[in-house]
Write a structure and sequence with these properties.
single chain; 388 residues; alpha+beta; Immunoglobulin-like; Cytochrome Bc1 Complex, Chain D, domain 2; five-stranded mixed β-sheet; 37% helix; binds heme C; binds copper (II) ion
Length: 388
């Protein structure tokens, strides 16, 4: 009964939004197709709460005054009514109807949010202390702390964490989902207004949790295609001079879970000082040989660069003493030759990059003050245009 009463109202209110609405006193801008529904449900529940808050408070005050003990009145009159069928039915049925309605609108919204449309554009998201990586397999593009998505097309994020719980939250889209180590979670949205939106990690995930921020750039379809195409080829067009920075800001996030920049060895040896170690040739391998044995004229690695290159493309070949053979062996298919070159140049220039402020005290890659490869400058044209 309640369902058939409410259905027309709900259906019209829960229809997919096609137009963004601005920021209100309570709410940030609503820039996704579900934001309108979510705000409506929230408001629906809020209004019910306000009505009851006032009703209960008013009755409370009224009864406190009306039934207060008056001077000279002692006896308790226990001859009053003990039952009121109509009253009991009222206070049972109305709240029941209301909670069913709340459940129902909430459930409809929830199911909508859980099930992404078939034709969604997919992005793999990795959360780790304390940055985001966004992988666009369709274009072979990996971004960190910046996510470009198409306008008016559903986007599905397939998310995982490499360390602790994180949670991805884009207030303007009204979507939020935890990232749980050891399993995938998903989330989808359809952005309906071009622009840049703040993305937060909204799970306290360690000391730099508050810095775990990213920006979502929503671009009209043609600009999106163009930008992704540009990202996919950018290393081809870059001057050699810019390759080390490119590798540090765009590629190193695929190595950072095992290789630090600040001298601490974890799963893999640190990249700090790697270039000097390789030149000296005293790296010892599990089979007792040292790098010297392979280097120099006529050796397998005539120049140190070749050892680094080989370590990336064929990591199982020589295993360093005290380390396990756990480095992924699929970089050969993931990285283009020029990207490998960029990584080698990054190792060679790591001290210089650190001096220039690309690597922070904590060994994390810094988002630089001067605009470089990774900045939103490369995504410029879409930022100011209003889509739609
Ligand atoms: C899952 C962990 C892991 C990831 C991710 C990883 N590596 Fe490694 N890497 C290792 C381990 C462990 C070693 C040492 C054992 C060995 O020699 O294979 C190593 C060794 C190396 C070496 C040789 C180091 C030396 O001191 O001789 C280089 C160079 C290297 N990795 C580069 C990279 C690059 C570049 C990436 C990212 C594109 C990367 N690795 C990603 C685990 C990893
Ligand atoms: Cu986090």
């Amino acid at each position: 009964m309640i369902q058939s009463l409410l259905e027309p109202i709900i259906m019209s209110t829960l229809a997919e939004a096609t137009e963004a609405t601005g920021k209100t006193f309570w709410m940030p801008e609503a820039a996704s197709s579900v934001a309108g529904q979510i705000d409506w449900i929230l408001e629906f529940i809020n209004v019910i709460c306000y009505v009851f808050l006032f009703l209960v408070t008013a009755v409370l005050v009224w009864f406190a005054v009306k039934y207060r003990r008056k001077p000279g009145e002692h006896a308790i009159n226990d001859e009053g009514p003990t039952h009121g069928l109509a009253l009991e039915l009222t206070w049972t049925l109305i709240p029941t109807g209301l909670v069913v309605a709340i459940f129902w609108v909430g459930m409809v919204g929830y199911i909508d949010l859980r099930e992404s449309p078939e034709d969604s554009y997919e992005v793999s998201v990795t959360g780790q202390q304390w940055f985001w990586t966004f992988n666009h397999p369709q274009y072979g593009v990996i971004q960190s702390n910046e996510l470009h998505v198409p306008l008016n097309r559903p986007v599905r994020l397939i998310m995982g964490s490499t360390d602790v719980l994180h949670s991805l939250f884009v207030p303007a889209f009204r979507v939020k989902q935890d990232l749980v180590p050891g399993r995938y979670s998903t989330l989808w949205f359809k952005a309906i207004k071009a622009g840049s939106y703040q993305l937060y990690c909204t799970e306290y995930c360690g000391k730099d949790h508050s810095k775990m921020l990213a920006t979502v750039h929503v671009l009209p379809e043609d600009e999106f295609q163009e930008t992704m195409g540009k990202f996919a080829r950018e290393y081809e067009d870059l001057p050699d001079n810019d390759l080390p920075v490119y590798a540090l800001t765009r590629l190193y996030n695929r190595c950072s879970s095992c290789h630090s920049l600040d001298g601490t060895n974890s799963t893999g040896p640190t990249f700090k000082g790697l270039w000097d170690r390789v030149q000296n040739g005293d790296t010892v391998f599990t089979d007792g040989t040292t790098l010297k044995d392979y280097m120099g004229d006529g050796g397998e690695y005539e120049v140190p660069e070749n050892y680094i290159r080989e370590s990336i493309l064929n990591p199982g070949k020589l295993i360093r003493e005290n380390y396990a053979n756990v480095m992924p062996n699929n970089f050969a298919s993931q990285l283009k030759p020029r990207q490998v070159e960029a990584l080698v140049l990054m190792m060679k220039n790591l001290d210089k990059l650190t001096d220039e402020g690309w690597v922070g005290e904590d060994g994390k890659v810094q988002t630089p003050e001067q605009p470089a490869v990774d900045s939103s400058a490369s995504a410029g044209p879409g930022m100011t245009e209003e889509g739609g």
